[in-house]
Write a structure and sequence with these properties.
Blueprint: E1 3-14, E2 17-23, E3 35-42, E4 51-58, E5 67-73, H1 80-85, E6 92-95, E7 111-116, H2 120-133, E8 138-144, H3 153-162, E9 166-172, H4 188-191, E10 198-202, H5 205-217, E11 225-226
Parallel strand pairs: 7-8, 7-10, 8-9, 10-11
Antiparallel strand pairs: 1-2, 1-6, 2-5, 3-4, 3-6
């Protein structure tokens, strides 16, 4: 059921991504990795009634308090992303209940999180949960175009320094640097010490499908690879 909440903080993370802290009257209860929806009406010049816009965004924080943290990338031809990037501290926004099926399945298994772009948002929340309750090793793979577009790098580097069981691998596709380059999924088999683990994958549909196919070729069972599940229908053969 939709509810109103207030933006209490806005932080620019990259040239095109802002992080919003949004507070409500009651504590948010959800599973890390789940998303809310931003809802608003915009004028539709071709219709007498306003258009209802509903877009999903994943919380990057863990539950149990009155705050949600959303990292939203602005697209020039976007609707909700432009709307949110025009908001200011103190503005009230309408959100929907949190839900979704990309959540941590088994905290006793070794895990690998694989993401690109804003697909990192559910991974950040699940990583925080795993580091609190997990008992195994965790590898965090994140792909972006360039260093200036890398989200949550300070957070990830700090978590890696604090947790010996965590390894973070960045890969850049459009910039030469000292680290891995190219598609992040191309580094799974040469950066992992064994594939006997659960995999969580999120990003643009093509990347998710390619990663799942690559893992299948490497012999990873399909029931150990988790994603939102909608990406197959988004990719044309």
């Amino acid at each position: 059921m939709p509810f109103d909440a207030t933006i209490t903080s806005i932080h620019r993370m990259t040239p095109r991504v802002k992080q919003f802290v949004i507070e409500a009257d009651e504590a948010f209860e959800f599973e890390p990795g789940q998303h809310t929806t931003v809802r608003f009406e915009r004028d539709d010049p071709d219709d007498e009634e306003d258009e209802q816009v509903v877009r999903p965004y994943t919380a990057t924080n863990t539950p149990g308090n009155e705050r949600l943290t959303l990292a939203i990338k602005r697209y020039d031809d976007g609707t909700a992303s432009v709307y949110m990037h025009e908001r200011e501290v103190g503005d009230v926004v309408t959100l929907g209940d949190l839900g979704g099926n990309l959540t941590l399945r088994n905290a006793d298994e070794d895990v690998a999180f694989v993401s690109t772009g804003t697909g990192i948002t559910p991974m950040i929340a699940m990583l925080k949960e795993y580091l609190e309750v997990g008992t195994g090793e965790v590898d965090f793979f994140y792909g972006e175009k360039s260093q200036e577009n890398v989200m949550y790098r300070e957070t990830l580097d700090q978590l890696a320094a604090e947790h010996d069981e965590l390894s973070v691998i960045y890969s850049l596709s459009d910039e030469e640097w000292a680290g891995p380059t190219g598609h992040v999924q191309d580094h799974l088999d040469d950066r992992l010490d064994g594939l006997d683990r659960d995999f969580y994958v999120c990003g643009v549909p093509g990347m998710v499908v390619d990663t799942k196919e690559r893992l299948a070729d490497l012999g990873v069972d399909d029931d150990r690879v988790f994603s939102e599940g909608w990406e197959d229908g988004e990719v044309e053969d």
